[in-house]
Amino acid sequence: MINGLAVALVFVTAMLVHIPIPMAGTGGMIHMGDVPLFVFALLYGRKTGAIAGALGLTLFDLLSGWTLWAPFTCLIAGMVGWVVGAASEKRDDARRYALSILAANLITVAGYYLAECLLFGNWLAPLGSVPVNILQVTIAAIIAYPLASKLRKLSGDIFR
Question: Is residue 23 part of a domain?
Answer without folding.
Answer: no
